[in-house]
Amino acid sequence: MSKWRVIFCGVLLSMGLVSMAQASLSDSLTVEDLKENGVLFTPHNRVTLLPSGAEKFEDMFKAIEQARHYIYLEYFNFRSDSIGKALFTLLDKKVREGVKVRVIYDDFGNVSNDRPLRKRHLRQLKSRHFEVVVFDPIVFPWVNHALHRDHRKIVVIDDKVVYTGGMNVADYYIHGRPEFGKWRDMHMRLEGDCVPLYRRIFCEMWERCTGDKIDSLEYQTDSLAFQTDFRGLKETACADSSGVLLGVANREPKRSPAIIRRSYIDAIDNAQKRIQIVNPYFTLVPSVKKALYRALKRGVKLEVMLSTKCDVPVMPDVAAYHAKRLMKRGADIYYYEDGFHHSKVMMVDSTFCTVGSANLNSRSLKFDYEVNAFIVDSCTTRELQSIFEADKHHSTLLTPENWKKRRSFGRRFMGWFYHLLIPLI
C-alpha cells in the first residue's frame, strides 16, 4: 500500500471515529438531559416495531392467548366494532382460564368515537367478571372534564411484554376509513427491564380511578406460578436487540407536566445532523417550535411528514401554518397522500428515536396523560427511518410553488386564526 493511500485511509478512519464520537456524545447528552427531566431508563430491552394495525393486533392477540397470570389494558378508547368484539371475546376466554384481566378506558375518548362502548356493553363485560373502570366519567357540567384526559395506549402481559404506541382499539387501523382510505400508525412490542415501569403506570392509574391498590402479589415476577415463554410473535428486525437502552417518559398533569415536552426539546437541541418527524396534529407549542428553528439555524437537516387528510378538521390548517414557516427556514415538509398518517415518531441522527402516544400539540404536551418511549438504538432508529423513506414515495414535497395550490386563501387565513388557539388545541 502506498504512503498516500495509507494517509488517505487514516484520514477516512479518523473522520469515521470523529463521526462515531460525535454521535456517541450526542446520545450521551440526550440521555443525561432526559434523566434530568424524569425519564426513567433501563438498559436491557428488546423493541419490535409494529407499523400497521394488522401487525399490532395479530401480535398482541397471540401474546394475550398465551397469558397465564394477568393482562392489564389502558386505552383512550375501545371502538365497539369487529376488532373490539374479538378482543373482549379473547379476554373473556382468558378470564375463564383464571387470568386476571383489568381494563381502563377514558370516558371522553369513548364518547368521542363514532362507535363507543355503551352501558349495555359494560354490563356484559362486568357479567363476564371483567374488571373495567372508566377514567374521569363525564358528568354535568361537561366542560370540567375537557382537560387532563388519559390518552395512553398500554397493554402489559405477565410482566413480560408491553404493547404501546399510537393505536387505540379499532378496526379502521386494519381496514381504513372511507373518508381517509388507509389509517397509518405506529405501535411496538417491548420486552425486558422496561416492562415493570409500564405496569407501574397502569397500577397507579388504577388506584387513581378506583381508590384501591392492586395487590403486588398479583404481578410480582417471583410470585408467578410459572413464567410465560411467548411464542409465535413477530421477530425484531435487529439481530442483537436484547440490550437496548430505553427510557419511559410518563406524563402526568401534576406530577410530571413537562416531561415529554422538555424531552422533545432536549433531543432536538442535541441533534447533530438530521431530525425526522411524523406527527398527525402538528400544532407546535412555542417551545418546541423554537427548538426546531434552532436546529435549522445550526445546519441540522429537518424533515417533517404531515398528513393531507385528518380526522380533526382544523388540524391541517394549523399544521400548514407552521409547515410554511419551517419550509422557509430550510426544512423539507412532506405531505403524505396515501391515507391518514396518525403515527407519532421522531428519529434523530440515526441513533435515537421516540415512539408513543403524545402528539406535538398542547393537549398532549400540557394537559393529557401520555407515555412515550425514548429509544437509544441505531437499529430501531434506522428501521423507522426506512419506513419514513418508503412513505416519501406516497408523499408530496412542499414547495413555494405548490404552497398556494395546496391551501386556498381562506384555508391559509383559517390556519393563521386557529394558530392563535394553540394553547388550547
Tell me about this structure.
By secondary structure, this protein is of the alpha/beta class. Helix content is 41%, strand content 21%. A nine-stranded mixed beta sheet has the order 1-10-17-16-15-11-12-13-18, sandwiched between helices. Strands 2-9-7-6-3-4-5 form a seven-stranded mixed beta sheet, with helices on both faces. Strands 8-14 form a two-stranded parallel ribbon. Helix 3 (82-96) links the parallel strand 3 (70-75) and strand 4. Helix 1 (3-37) runs antiparallel to helix 8 (259-269), helix 2 packs parallel to helix 3 (82-96) and helix 10 (315-328) packs across helix 14. It is globular. The chain starts with a helix and ends in a 6-residue tail after the last helix. It comes from Paraprevotella clara YIT 11840. Pfam families: PLDc_2.
Give me a quick take on this structure.
This protein has 425 residues and is an alpha/beta fold.
What radius of gyration results from the CA coordinates? 22 Å
Whole-number total of structural domains? 1
Estimate the strand proportion: 15-25%
Number of helical segments? Answer: 14
Strand order of the largest sheet: 1-10-17-16-15-11-12-13-18
Q: How would you characterize the largest beta sheet?
A: 9 strands, mixed
Organism: Paraprevotella clara YIT 11840
Signal peptide: 1-23
Domain PLD phosphodiesterase: 146-173, 337-364
GO molecular function: phosphatidyltransferase activity
